[in-house]
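Saturday, quiet lab. Running sequence design on the structure tokens for the scaffold JK sent over.
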């Protein structure tokens, strides 16, 4: 039977390494919803011919939202800035998120990336993503 020396500080060193790796990844500049200042609420609905996404973005101008679709991933990003009134202010509560936001959605292969449309109304961003037309079986005639 082999004796194994107990080193209690090995666990602490391992934990410190994990924390350093997590913090390095967090501050690396890559934006994800894990590092965003806030995450807007999104409803996703699927229909026979399309997907509809509804993103709550009150206080964010449509021109300030970036929407990209690349490699089957739909990405939304932007920023909601804090608005301050004039005069002395005492904040009693802050429930709305401010700062940068970022959301990503992995889309199925059935979407038609060329037909994506986005509109904004009353602080709700609506994104419509059509599906590709399904291949219909057809009868093939044999030429004589």
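Result came back. Writing it out in full:
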């Amino acid at each position: 039977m082999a004796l194994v020396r107990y080193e209690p500080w090995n666990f602490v060193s391992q934990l410190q390494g994990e924390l350093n790796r997590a913090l390095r990844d967090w501050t690396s500049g890559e934006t994800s919803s894990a590092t965003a200042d806030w995450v807007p609420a999104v409803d996703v609905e699927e229909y026979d011919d399309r997907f509809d996404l509804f993103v709550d973005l009150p206080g964010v101008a449509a021109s300030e939202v970036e929407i990209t679709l690349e490699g089957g991933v739909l990405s939304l990003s932007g920023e909601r800035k804090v608005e301050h009134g004039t005069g002395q202010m005492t904040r009693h509560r802050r429930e709305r998120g401010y700062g940068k936001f970022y959301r990503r959605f992995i889309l199925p292969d059935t979407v038609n990336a060329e037909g994506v449309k986005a509109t904004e109304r009353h602080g709700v961003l609506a994104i419509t993503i059509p599906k590709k037309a399904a291949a219909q079986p057809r009868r093939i005639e044999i030429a004589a």
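Notes for JK: The first helix runs from residue 8 to 26. The longest strand covers residues 73-80. Ask whether to fix the surface positions before the next round.
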